[in-house]
Write a structure and sequence with these properties.
Length: about 260
C-alpha cells in the first residue's frame, strides 16, 4: 500500500481533498464513501473551502455511508446519516437525493444490510472510500476477528469502541450497542481506499496494519490486499513504523498526486 507521512492533520486533509477534487474533475458523478468521527473533518473542511471558492464543482457527486447505528430514531443528531448530511452533504452543496445509506431503523436489519450492498452495486460501486482506523485496528465497525470476506451486516460494538464514541453523546449509556457496517469484503470492492490516521493513539494500529501480518485481529491490515490503498498519517501516527524513514523518502521523491 502507499504510505504518505504528512506534518499534521490539516496537511493530510488538504492532500486527500486534492485527490477527491481530481477524481471529481475526471468523473463528476463519482460515488464517494465517507467516514464519520473527528479524523476526517479536515478533509471535509478542505473540500467545502474549495466549493466556496468556486474551485471545485461537487454538484454531481454522490455520497455513501460506511456504517450506521442501529436503533437511533430518524433525525437523531448523532445518527451517521445526520452527521454526513451536516458535515459533508450540506457543505458541499449537495442534496439528500445524492446520498445512499443503510437503514438503521429497519425492522429487519439483516435485510437492510443486504439491501445496502445491492444499492452500492447498482450505483456502479464506490470510486473512493475514506476510512479511519480504531485504536484496536478496526475499520468501519469491523471489530477484531471480523471475517476478511465479510459483507455489510449488523455488528455488536465492543465496549472500547462504545467508550471511544461516548464523546459524541451525553453519556455512555446512550451509545448504541449495534451498528450496520460495510463488511471488509464490501470495503475492498471500492476502487480506491484512502485511510487517514492522526495522533499517537493510532500509532500501534497503523504499524500493525501497514507492517504487520494480514490478520483478522487487525481488520485494517486487509488494506494490504487492495490494489490501490493509500494510508495518510501524521508524524505522531507514524511513530510506530519501522519503515517511516523509507516512506518519508519515497514521498519526498514523487509529486503528491502520484500517491493518490
Amino acid at each position: 500500500m502507499e504510505v504518505v507521512i504528512v506534518p499534521d492533520a490539516e496537511a493530510g486533509g488538504e492532500l486527500i481533498a486534492s485527490a477527491i477534487a481530481g477524481l471529481l474533475a475526471r468523473k463528476p458523478d463519482a460515488l464517494l464513501g465517507v467516514a464519520t468521527g473527528s479524523t476526517p473533518l479536515p478533509i471535509y473542511q478542505a473540500l467545502a473551502a474549495r466549493v466556496r471558492a468556486n474551485t471545485l464543482d461537487a454538484s454531481r457527486a454522490r455520497i455513501c455511508q460506511l456504517d450506521e447505528y442501529v436503533g437511533l430514531p430518524k433525525g437523531h443528531p448523532e445518527s451517521y446519516r445526520s452527521v454526513v448530511l451536516r458535515e459533508v452533504v450540506e457543505p458541499l452543496g449537495l442534496t439528500e437525493a445524492s446520498f445512499i445509506g443503510p437503514d438503521g431503523t429497519a425492522e429487519d436489519v439483516a435485510a437492510a444490510s443486504s439491501d445496502y450492498d445491492r444499492a452500492l452495486a447498482a450505483a456502479g460501486g464506490v470510486d473512493l472510500q475514506l476510512l479511519g482506523i480504531g485504536t484496536d485496528g478496526h475499520i468501519g465497525f469491523n471489530e477484531p476477528c471480523s471475517s476478511l470476506a465479510s459483507r455489510t451486516r449488523i455488528k455488536t460494538l465492543t465496549q472500547q469502541t462504545r467508550v471511544d464514541n461516548a464523546r459524541f453523546f451525553d453519556s455512555l449509556d446512550e451509545v448504541p450497542h449495534h451498528v450496520i457496517t460495510q463488511g471488509i469484503g464490501t470495503i475492498l470492492e471500492a476502487r480506491h481506499l484512502v485511510l487517514l490516521a492522526t495522533g499517537e493513539a493510532k500509532a500501534e494500529a497503523v504499524a500493525l496494519s501497514v507492517e504487520g501480518p494480514l490478520s483478522a485481529m487487525v481488520p485494517a491490515s486487509a488494506l494490504q490486499l487492495h490494489p490501490h490503498a493509500t494510508v495518510v498519517i501524521d508524524e505522531a501516527a507514524a511513530s510506530g513504523l519501522k519503515l517511516a524513514d523509507y516512506f518519508r523518502a519515497t514521498y519526498a521523491a514523487k509529486p503528491a498526486w502520484q500517491f493518490l
